Amino acid sequence: MKKVIAIYPGSFDPPTNGHLDLVERGSRIFDELVVAILRNPEKDPLFSLGERRHMLEDLTSGFKNVRVDTFDGLMVDYAAKLNATAVLRGIRALSDYEYELQMALMNRKLLPDLETVFMMPAEQYSYLSSRLVREVARLGGAIDGLVPELVEQRLREKLDPAIKLQNARVKQQSRKSKTGKHA
Known about the structure:
The chain is an alpha/beta fold. It is 49% helix and 16% strand. The protein is globular.
């Protein structure tokens, strides 16, 4: 029987509990699930590609059939390279469906053997998006329960001015000690 490889593409900036919900459920459906982080030069991400990859690798390490990768260009070209036969996409609202349907139909036109599987998130994540999480975090709002603890910590490090200042001082001290200069 043929092994079913699926791709779960996205920017994952940052990864949310909604993303992890789909990863967990997708891992039970597909033989292999590749969480594929898109390098999108048109977006200005909060987290670097490497940061997102490391977070997702940590968060998905408990799934034996899930791996994290990055790609750029057309997702169908990436799917063909992996011999993937399915794409997993989350749909939260009717507006998501309209966009995702267009993408699925274009992907089908470009790669007819690639199927798109739409999955609704668990109810508690039906409103959740990375964009909303970033916005709430930037404004100092509570994001517990929206993202894993690891992601919440990384968001606070990125966005909290006091933590950013402390990290800058640590980096500066580290550079000084490497070059032998002392203040």
